[in-house]
Each structure stands twice: as C-alpha cells, then as structure tokens.
Amino acid sequence: VTCNAAFTRLLGHDPAKVNGRRLSTFVVPRHVPDLEAAMARLLERDEGATCGSHLSLDLPMLTAGPEVDVRPFRFEFVDALDDPVVQGIVVTGHDVTEMHSMRRELEHLARHDPLTRLPNRSMLSDRLQRLLEFGETFAVLFIDLDRFKPINDLYGHEAGDQVLAMVAERLRDFIRPNDLVARVGGDEFVVVAHGIATRDA
Q1: Core vs surface per residue 36-52: b (16+ CB within 10 A) or e
Q2: Which of 34, 126, 108, 123 is nearest to 74 (CA)?
Q3: CA nearest neighbour of 118 among 167, 176, 151, 152
Q4: pLDDT truncated to tens, each residue of the chain (201 aa)?
Q5: DSSP element (H, E) containing 201
Q6: Is 95 in the active site?
C-alpha cells in the first residue's frame, strides 16, 4: 500500500513502481514460500486473539539496477488488522548485510587459524568425522617442522610467524583441490588427502 524512501534507497526500486506490488515480488523467488507462510500465520490467528501479534523473518531481497543483486533483510511483521486506522499488517525491514558479514567473519575465525588462515583443529576434526561417517578412504599426514624453535629464539617470533605463514602457503599450493591442510599446533600441520586407499599411494 505504501512504503517509505528507505525501501527505495536500500533496494534501488523506483517509488512509483513499488506501491501496488506484493512484497513477495521483491524477494528472491525460492524464499517467497517463507514469506507467504509467515503472512498466513498472522492471518490465521485464533478467534478472539487481539491485534499486535508479531513475528520476525530473515529474507534475501532483490535490488534494482542493471545488475540485480541480493541483500539480506530482517523483517518484523505486526498484526494491526483490528486497528481502526491501519486495518492491515505493518512490515518493517532492516538491511542486515553488515550483521551477516560479521557473522560469517566470526564463523570463519572460529574454524581457521588467524596467522596462516588455514583450517584449525576444530575444522579438521569435523572433516575427519564426516569422512569416517561416509566410509571414505583417505590418508592423514602429520607434518612437524624440525628446528623451528631456534628461529624464534634467534630471530624473534615475528620471523617465526613469517616462516609458518610461508610453510602454510606452500602446503596449500601442494595439495589437491579436495584435500585439506590444517594447522593444529605451534609448528604442527595435518594434511587430509582424499581417495588414498593404500599406504604406498
């Protein structure tokens, strides 16, 4: 029925073409059923329920422009059907792109070593668990750097960090696309090589 300028500013749609359209036409198509289910829950309230019921829902929204992009939004739906002035459902949306980016970054940090950017022990454990559950054949190589402590002692921890980052980069370059290399300790790395069925291989 109506929307404010923020909707247009955030998604780029022409205000003249927004009013009169269903909210679902701005949602990524495969998420439209989620929106419709949320609206149905509000409309099918029990007999005698008062207005003011609300629910929240995250939906990816389509932007306008030559290159259509997707932005994550969090919507609050408030039932104001019994309100004599509104007589409808009020929808408020917030762009949560930054929050999603922060969440992805935190999830990445929780599963990766900050120095080498390699997967950490937690992610390695998850990968091994999945491989065992699926019954896949694989090899695990444990790599420990010899004479690493003297580097820290003689040249300082900054030099040691540079060596670790260089080793991580070289290991990353050597493994195959589906294999995994992780840092599991100070100078300890583990490679998980898929599809290795014999010790000779």
Answers
A1: eebbeebeeeeeeeebe
A2: 34
A3: 167
A4: 777 888 888 888 887 888 888 889 999 999 999 999 988 888 776 555 555 578 889 999 998 877 768 889 999 988 888 888 888 888 888 888 888 888 888 887 888 999 999 999 999 999 999 999 998 899 999 999 999 989 988 999 999 999 999 999 999 999 999 999 999 988 999 999 998 888 888
A5: none
A6: no
Geometric angle at alpha carbon 22, from 24 and 30, rounded to 5°:
15
Which one-letter amino acid corresponds to residue 66? P
Question: Which amino acid is it at 141?
Answer: L
CA 104 from centre of chain:
4
Give the per-residue pLDDT at 17: 82
Q: Which residues pair with 58 in a beta bridge?
A: 74
- pLDDT for 106: 84
DSSP 137-169: -EEEEEEE-TT-HHHHHHH-HHHHHHHHHHHHH
DSSP string covering 164-190, please? HHHHHHHHHHHS-TT-EEEE-SSSEEE
| Kind plus residue range of the DSSP H or E element containing 25 | none
Among residues 161, 173, 187, 200, the one annotated as catalytic is 187
Tokens of 12: 């780029």
| CB-based contacts of 68-74 (< 8 A; 24+ apart in sequence) | 70/28, 71/10, 71/11, 71/95, 71/97, 72/96, 72/97, 72/100
The structure tokens listed for 199 are 């010790």
Q: What is the pTM of this model?
A: 0.54
